[in-house]
Amino acid sequence: MELVIARNPDPDSRLPYLLRLPLGEGLVFATKDTWPRTSALYCHPLPLDAWPHDDTLDEVEKVKLRVCDRRGAAIDIVADRTRESRTQIVFTHARGRQMVFWQSPRTRKQSRPDVRTPTARAAGISELEILVDAHEKYPYKFPQQAVTTTRKALTCGDYAIMLNDRTIAAVERKTMADLIGSLTGGRLRYALADLAALPRAAVVVEEPYSKVFAQDRVRPALVADGLAELQIAWPGVPIVFCDTRKLAEEWTYRWLSAARVWAGQEATLNPEPSEPEPSTKELRAWARGEGIDVPERGRLRPEVLAAWRAAQMPAS
After folding, report:
1. Measured between alpha carbons, how far is 137 from 302 in angstroms, rounded to an integer?
2. Residue 81 belongs to domain spanning
3. Who wins on pLDDT, 107 or 240?
4. Distances (CA, A) of 212 to 61, 179, 202, 239
5. pTM above 0.85, yes or no
6. Do 57 and 96 sit in the same domain of this protein?
7. How many Å apart are CA 242 and CA 251, to the nearest integer?
8. CA dihedral 92, 97, 98, 102 (to 10 degrees)
9. 106 shares a domain with 138
């Protein structure tokens, strides 16, 4: 029982290799590489007669197998060798059609998960308006949710919601490359500082945390330590890792919906005062005008602010 890799004779194909599995009469796929070493490989199913004849076969590798069994939506493959022995061919759904990926234990979390996001409205909100930063090149569209999007220049974040003309929550979207670039370049620190000024904010990453340790252009420990330091400095701005862009989009929708409900409850329980409270300078001037003794500098006693609040209440 052998797995065979050959060169794809089709010169127009973007997948340079053919994979043949000894399952039933045989399964043939066109794929990108000879083994899923650093990332899951997309496999395009081909008919059995697409496998080249012996006289035209350009064989690259032949691997003896101990196991080649189909179990549900996956084919388990165990090679008869000590290293790089276990892989899977996984049948999943993406973009409305079936897709096939060849993955190994090292890369399985990077493949597209076979999940379907719910269409139920988050937090019971009939329709949520989400502001999208005008500089966002490939924005989320939230096609399966009751969402209206409005392009607007945001002071921070890529997606935000407002209540009473005030930004109450924002999400900053990052790919792994953008996350690492902004972290090592120092921009992420300033972005988190701006986000922390909002009542609620978060950063969503469109790839799993495990990808941090698969970097070859920067030391993974440097990235992991930097992210940990940022979370200690700004614990109120979580950095959330999602496996795919689709799941990051779903998380963003539901998080912003929860923030909208929270803000509505806060506004009900703690309504804004009818008149903004004065600065220390204004409060000192008011107190002197009322004949209240206050120091020239420093903080004022709480009783002074309480007296000012009492003076603002309408007479009964």
Report:
1. 50
2. 2-110
3. 240
4. 31, 10, 19, 13
5. no
6. yes
7. 8
8. -70
9. no
